[in-house]
Write a structure and sequence with these properties.
alpha/beta; 345 residues; Non-ribosomal Peptide Synthetase Peptidyl Carrier Protein, Chain A; eight-stranded parallel barrel; 2 domains; 13% strand; 14 helices; TIM Barrel
Length: 345
Amino acid sequence: MVKIDQITLPDFPLLLAPMEDVSDPPFRVVCKANGADLVYTEFISCEGLVRDAIKCRKKLDIFEEERPAGIQIFGGDEERMAMAARIVDVTQPELLDINFGCPVKGIVAKGAGSGVLRDLPLMVRLTEACVKSTNLPVTVKTRLGWDDDSKNIEEVAERLQDVGIKALTIHGRTRCQMYKGEADWSLIAKVKNNPRIHIPIFGNGDIDGPQKALEYKNRYGVDGIMIGRAAIGYPWIFREIRHYLNTGEELAPPSVAERVEVCRRHLAKSLQWKGDVAGIYAMRRHYLTYLKGLPGIKEFRTRLVTLQDPAEINAVLDEVLRRYEGFEMERTPIQLVNYHENCPL
């Protein structure tokens, strides 16, 4: 088992990455039901929390069935981060995570996200301010460094551990790489193998299937992996990886019935969290990915994205089940979309 302070996770846990406009409560519930061991909220601005911004406060919501869950915040001011940490503490997630990895220009320009990688003393102060302001375990997600000339993740890991973080997730790219090129996990392995490091180290970047998950587990020795882009539209990746790690065998791709069930569950949670109008609208982009690969599905998708009544949507999903009864899904490679984890598109 892996422990983050008092949180007990299975051996080699699979984490769902925080992704802006993706990792909302309905999506997290679906991923949890399909094998994610720990999920994180979308990243939340500490400035927004302190100003009591409605959108930011809404992101604090957690459904009971998705726990354990972490709330992730970002910012570049010690006092604001400390205040935000106290606000998060009251909402009682399992942990508080700090975003030092978002590479998007608008976030970096505010001295937050991966922009903090250029100022290690500030990163330490921000982290320490959060640790001292909450009773929750504090964890961090970051990158290898700002650019190829400043890959300082080994020093970062030691100094953040020294001020009290309980786990560290490392994305195997620099900020300047954004999401280009291949993630380099060799430095993640060096952090894990550092005898001074005693907290869990999770790797992140380019995991797109069970085989790579096992390969990276064995090659780099990390305590677990965080999955982001590969889970978008394919929450089954968690159960497929877990099965492969346990048995060495591939699971069959999700059946049509399983895909429809995920659509229903996601829709129900979206309605519960956002209400009928916003909940239906938020679901429209998900039908494309959940039902991908079914021949002639365009007709059904067109109806699903135009209907405004939950009962009518479920009736169309019933039609999908009847139309594709007995159809065997083929496995297709998971495409890592050009998406910035933790950051707006």
